[in-house]
């Protein structure tokens, strides 16, 4: 099982690939962030930690830098930054509203994955 981690440096490539990754049979946990949002900066590190903790699990992880790729964020109706969403095949997206630590996000994922 491959876990997808898209760094801020590679985020421009996500413009073409996010829809493809969302259509697969694996859940996708996405962080929509910007460079200007002070809350977005620490989240990048926490997402890196989360990706290492999950390893090659049943979920893929992606980060979208919205000031570089605004079309992705507009397409997915991102209302604020950072905005974290769990996409699962056949289900409505679930928005993560908890504290932005890898530990708490991992617990939330365990509870919310089908």
TrEMBL record:
Matching InterPro entries, A to Z?
A: Thioredoxin-like_sf, Thioredoxin_domain, TXNDC16
Q: Which residues form the Thioredoxin domain?
A: 20-110
> By its UniProt entry, which Pfam families does this protein fall under?
Thioredoxin
Judging by the UniProt lineage, the source's domain of life is Eukaryota
* Record's protein name: Thioredoxin domain-containing protein
Species of provenance: Hexamita inflata
């Amino acid at each position: 099982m491959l876990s997808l981690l898209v760094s801020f440096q590679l985020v421009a490539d996500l413009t073409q690939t996010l829809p493809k990754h969302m259509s697969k049979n694996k859940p996708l946990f996405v962080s929509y962030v910007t460079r200007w949002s002070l809350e977005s900066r620490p989240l990048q590190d926490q997402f890196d930690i989360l990706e290492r903790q999950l390893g090659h699990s049943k979920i893929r992880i992606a980060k979208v830098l919205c000031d570089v790729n605004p079309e992705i964020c507009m397409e997915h109706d991102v209302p604020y930054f950072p905005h974290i969403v769990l996409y699962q095949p056949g289900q409505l997206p679930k928005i993560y509203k908890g504290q932005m630590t890898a530990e708490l996000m991992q617990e939330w994922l365990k509870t919310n994955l089908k």
